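To illustrate this point, we now present one chain and its tokenised fold:
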Amino acid sequence: MIDLATDALDPDLVQAGRTLLLGPVSFVMGAASLRDLPPDELPEIAFAGRSNVGKSSLINALTERGNLARVSNTPGRTQQLNFFRFADRMMMVDMPGYGYAEAPKAMVKAWQKMVFSYLRGRSNLARVYVLIDGRHGVKENDREVFKLLDDAAVSYQVVVTKADKEKAPVLAKRLQAIETELRRHVAAYPEVIVTSSRKMRGMETLRAAIARLLLENNQGG
């Protein structure tokens, strides 16, 4: 589990993460189908999670921009793949939430087909950050996404959200259960990052992790 104070992190990675995530960013497009995807010129990271897991709030906190990703109390608000370009270094993808049972079934099926096809086929996708609500832990539809990513050999890392809304002993047990489950998944990065968008907890850690990922990606390329 990664839940470290900023001074316990590599200061170079912390600074690199801040420079990248707090630097220039532009909304590129919202892709409603695979035909609409932008060119795969830059390394991409994607954020996925169940509807109402706090994905938009996390992206806004991570970039310290209040409205980069749209926040709503209505689950299922994000209905397309939203692409954000960070200078000329990285593309971030805000993916539609999954597991929203109250949305029309045909719409849910279409979203899932698009998302899963994207995950399987995007060659420049460096990592998917799968968000898990700290109050609930891993659900069955999360496991389906884990399996999909395993089968597609797409690297992913779990980010726990809303950590401030659960008592510490309960959260600790839940985190232990998540880490135990992830050991069974071949494409899962072994360490879990714990966050709270409301209290800005874990943001420097996540930024540093993304900076390290890009550094490794550049070295590998």
Summary: The radius of gyration is 16 Å. The CA atoms of residues 43 and 90 lie 5 Å apart.
